């Protein structure tokens, strides 16, 4: 008799479950599956990176999508534009923080300038109240005005500028009082005419009526006398 060939053994789909057979990668309770890399903050997705390649830099910096963009491409334009905007903002903020740190390192002290008159005045006040004066602090600026502007090239403007800075306010006032001004009848007549025309102007009348309601209006003569 002819022997029949053995039939192939069929393994059911739930063979692993019945015999509790697990793949080698998941055996053992302590074994952990490798985690996928975390997505960095503000990192554009693949679709956004793809969309960024479809538009030029000028199109992404524009205020509206390009005219040729239709349907989904308009949404892709917005996503790519926002990604580019946030990326530039983060770069600018990082550069600002670095610049600020460099400035903080460079500025060790703030230069202070105190005139010699003020120093002597402060020392006299400290002596009166019985407090010992602190040690003298050397000024970081030159006391002479000519020395401060020595690096500027000599010119008529420089000499006039130095003359303006030198001296005190009393000298300036006395010089101004001694200056004689010539009267110009034409200019005087023009000013008188403009002053008379004010009283016929509606806006000036409205402003004048508002000023009369203010408390200082009744005291205007006293204020003028005090200023004189």
UniProtKB/TrEMBL annotation:
Residues 1-69 are annotated as: Disordered. Residues 29-41 have a biased composition (Basic residues). It comes from Apolygus lucorum (Small green plant bug). This is Uncharacterized protein.
């Amino acid at each position: 008799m002819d022997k029949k060939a053995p039939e192939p053994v069929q393994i059911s789909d739930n063979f692993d479950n019945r015999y509790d057979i697990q793949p080698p990668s998941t055996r053992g309770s302590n074994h952990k599956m490798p985690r996928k890399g975390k997505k960095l903050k503000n990192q554009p997705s693949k679709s956004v990176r793809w969309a960024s390649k479809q538009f030029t830099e000028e199109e992404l910096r524009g205020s509206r999508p390009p005219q040729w963009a239709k349907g989904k491409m308009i949404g892709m334009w917005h996503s790519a534009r926002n990604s580019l905007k946030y990326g530039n903002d983060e770069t600018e903020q990082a550069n600002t923080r670095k610049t600020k740190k460099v400035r903080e390192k460079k500025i060790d002290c703030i230069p202070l300038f105190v005139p010699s008159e003020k120093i002597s005045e402060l020392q006299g006040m400290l002596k009166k109240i019985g407090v010992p004066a602190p040690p003298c602090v050397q000024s970081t600026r030159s006391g002479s005005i000519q020395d401060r502007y020595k690096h500027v090239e000599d010119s008529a403007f420089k000499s006039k500028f130095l003359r303006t800075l030198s001296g005190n306010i009393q000298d300036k006032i006395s010089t101004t009082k001694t200056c004689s001004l010539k009267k110009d009848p034409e200019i005087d007549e023009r000013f008188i005419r403009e002053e008379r025309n004010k009283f016929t102007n509606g806006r000036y009348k409205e402003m004048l009526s508002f000023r009369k309601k203010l408390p200082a209006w009744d005291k205007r003569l006293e204020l003028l006398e005090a200023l004189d």
